[in-house]
Write a structure and sequence with these properties.
The protein has 480 residues and is mainly α. Helices cover 67% and strands 0% of the residues. It is built from 17 helices and no strands.
Length: 480
């Protein structure tokens, strides 16, 4: 101790802060513990540092979340109930809806907490997953970049798969109407898929999100009208529920799970909605934007699925609009409106994967070729989605497969893993209940992934073989 130092005085200058956020030098604390500023410093609040040029109100954010979750998938719910039965379908929709809501909750909560650690005002889906690993257990930190890249690519594939489903929706609804009024020009679903190519290629050349807003607005109006007409027919002269099976074969349950996940899951847009809120602290909690939106979504999906299956039973199709009467103008108008709504929505959904693809490629392409490459990539992506749709035009099976492969991974598996990694060093609760809870969610995601994919692929193969055999028999008959 120096001569000028009083006895009993503790010199803090020789002590280093142990409050390092990570081993990365860029995140180490450079503040001295002896500073009054450190003692009085408030914890970083990401909400206070967000600078959003046009923030959404709480009501506006609720509307956006509802819009992202209430789409064409709701019309597939009666087909989902066919694979579960009335009783299992009703309880299953509530349970899966609760699990999907919880997964969104833990993802947003993790994002808000890692924003504090990284001292960033907001993060997207991929950034959140990467940051959870970056600030998680030391052995997992090298996986941060992989987590970000995996989510980016999975989101891209998810949206591209949804576009294929959209093409089949458009084709089947147009076919239903035109076959009725022009029976002499009956075309296959594959042919109608091909006919969508030109308008889709043209509309997808629009690159500014601002110019897509009118298409989205018109699509929403058409969807509301179509939904109202569909519900009118569903509730008209309902059969006795006793005529429908309460519990379907257990082997069909994975198809039910996959379809509900596909219809209900909107995790890709959750982080953008939360990041754009004027009061993001109102997104979670009770009641909160998330809880209110998902309560409405689960209720509507359950009602449409339950009563749609009672109405049409095992004859219900991948989109319940396809079950509407063939000889009534009101029903046929609903199908046309549905097809047009999906056609206009296609470009908006296409915007998301295109942004991800272009972000990866634009720096590798000379600026003078940017416009040409944009046109080429957009056209190629549309042609690819139409080709896949034409190759597998069974709407119900396509929805099941998409939900099983992509949305079970994004909506269930990823949030469960991210939540586990994030809380590993922070505490997993009494008796490690967070860990056990996430293991159950991961198991459900694997059931949807593997069982749902297997049953869907088997169904697609059987459908293809049946169609091929019928065509062979018809050709043999014509030759004789």
């Amino acid at each position: 101790m120096g001569h000028d130092e009083k006895k009993g005085t503790i010199i803090l200058d020789n002590f280093n802060s142990t409050a390092n956020l990570t081993a990365n030098p860029g995140f180490q604390s450079t503040l001295s513990l002896g500073s009054k500023d450190v003692i009085n410093e408030k914890a970083y609040n990401p909400f206070e540092h967000r600078k959003v040029s046009h923030p959404n109100s709480t009501i506006g954010s609720l509307v956006h979340l509802l819009k992202s979750s209430l789409g064409s998938g709701i019309l597939a719910m009666p087909a989902a109930f066919k694979n579960a039965g009335l009783a299992v379908g009703a309880f299953g929709t509530i349970i899966i809806g609760f699990i999907c809501t919880h997964c969104v909750y833990v993802l947003v909560k993790t994002s808000q907490e890692v924003c504090v650690e990284a001292k960033k005002p907001s993060m997207g889906f991929a950034e959140t997953c990467g940051a959870a690993f970056e600030f998680g257990p030391k052995k997992l930190r090298p996986w941060a970049n992989f987590a970000r890249t995996f989510i980016d690519y999975t989101l891209t594939c998810t949206y591209l798969a949804a576009l294929c489903v959209y093409v089949v929706f458009i084709a089947e609804n147009f076919k239903e109407v035109l076959d009725e009024y022009y029976p002499e020009y009956k075309l296959s679903v594959e042919a109608y898929c091909a006919l969508t190519l030109v308008p889709l290629v043209l509309i997808c050349q629009i690159r500014n999100l601002k110019w897509l807003v009118p298409f989205s607005a018109v699509a929403n109006i058409f969807l509301v009208i179509c939904f109202a007409i569909t519900m009118y027919y569903i509730f008209d002269d309902l059969p006795n529920p006793a005529e429908r099976q309460m519990v379907a074969s257990f082997t069909q349950w994975p198809l039910f799970i996959s379809t509900v996940i596909f219809a209900m899951e909107g995790i890709g847009v959750v982080m953008p909605v939360e990041n754009e809120m004027a009061k993001p602290q109102q997104f979670l909690g009770c009641p909160g934007v998330l809880n209110v939106a998902m309560t409405i979504v689960i209720s509507l999906y359950g009602i449409v699925g339950f009563f749609g299956y009672i109405k049409y039973g095992d004859t219900v199709r991948g989109s319940v609009t396809l079950n509407l009467p063939q000889d009534e103008i009101l029903a046929q108008s609903a199908k046309i409106l549905m097809a047009l709504a999906i056609l206009f929505t296609y470009s908006l959904q296409f915007y998301v994967p295109m942004e991800m693809i272009w972000r990866e490629l634009h720096s590798k392409i000379s600026i003078k070729y940017h416009n040409f490459m944009q046109i080429t990539i957009r056209t190629t992506a549309v042609v690819g989605s139409v080709a896949i749709a034409a190759a597998f035009p069974d709407l119900e099976l396509f929805i099941n497969l998409s939900g099983a492969v992509f949305l079970s991974s994004l909506g269930l598996l990823t949030p469960a893993i991210v939540d586990t990694v994030h809380n590993w060093n922070r505490g997993l609760g009494k008796y490690n209940w967070i860990l056990w809870k996430n293991i159950l969610v991961i198991m459900l995601s694997f059931i949807a992934l593997f069982a749902g994919s297997y049953v869907s692929i088997v169904g697609i193969v059987e459908k293809y073989n049946t169609t091929h055999n019928l065509e062979s028999n018809m050709n043999s008959t014509l030759r004789t």
